[in-house]
Amino acid sequence: MTLTGTEAVTTRPAAPVAAVFVRRACAQDAAALHTLSAPFARSGALRERPPELYAADADDFLVVELSDGALAGCLALRDHPRAPLGPSGVLYNFCVAGHSQGRGVGSALLWSALRTAETRALRAVFTATGGGGGLFLKYGFAPFPARFAPPVWANALDPRRGSRVLARAVPPGLD
């Protein structure tokens, strides 16, 4: 699939190397999602969200849970069926606890989100990042014009944050 405005973004990343279990979040995870995300919100890397919003949006989230029950990381995927490029998804609230960084948690979450997007027959996945976006780039994302993203999401981006929009196609058969 070619996304207008950039070269084809159909690379197939390798599966994450670390054996990390990713599961869907539930409303009972709201407090833990808020706690995990709070340092990233304080630093400006994520938007601040109240625990109630995590409970309401729990179905969007994938999480990695440690053996002690603490969350090592999370990533949310929201579907936008009427996006300019057809059914698309938006990844948001991606964070990995400091003690779990570099252990495959982020890769496992991103891989799982892309697999989920494929099973939902999404054509493209978008995200916004204020950082370098290295992991997204590794997984085939590329800078992309916000005008092709789901409008409700693109219009809510805060220009003061200096985020850049990244996108990738969702090819069938990520195996």
How would you characterize the overall build of this protein?
This is Amino-acid N-acetyltransferase. It comes from Streptomyces clavuligerus. InterPro entries: Acyl_CoA_acyltransferase, GNAT_dom. Pfam families: Acetyltransf_1 (PF00583). Mean pLDDT is 87; it is low at 1-17. The protein has one domain: Gcn5-related N-acetyltransferase (GNAT) (Aminopeptidase, 3-Layer(aba) Sandwich). Strands 1-2-3-4-5-7-6 form a 7-stranded mixed sheet. It contains 5 helices and 7 strands. The chain has helices at 30-43, 51-56, 105-119, 134-138, 151-154; strands spanning 22-24, 61-65, 71-80, 88-96, 124-129, 142-143, 164-169.
Quaternary structure classification: single chain
Principal-axes geometry comes out as globular
Helical stretch tally? 5
Relative helix content: 25-40%
CATH architectural type: 3-Layer(aba) Sandwich
The structural class is alpha+beta
CATH superfamily: Gcn5-related N-acetyltransferase (GNAT)
Report how far apart the termini are.
Answer: 17 Å
Largest sheet, in brief, is: 7 strands, mixed
Strand adjacency order, main sheet: 1-2-3-4-5-7-6
- Under CATH, the topology can be stated as Aminopeptidase
Percent in strands? 15-25%
What is the average per-residue confidence, as pLDDT, rounded to a whole number? Answer: 87
Domain N-acetyltransferase: 20-158
Keywords: Transferase
Protein name: Amino-acid N-acetyltransferase
Organism: Streptomyces clavuligerus
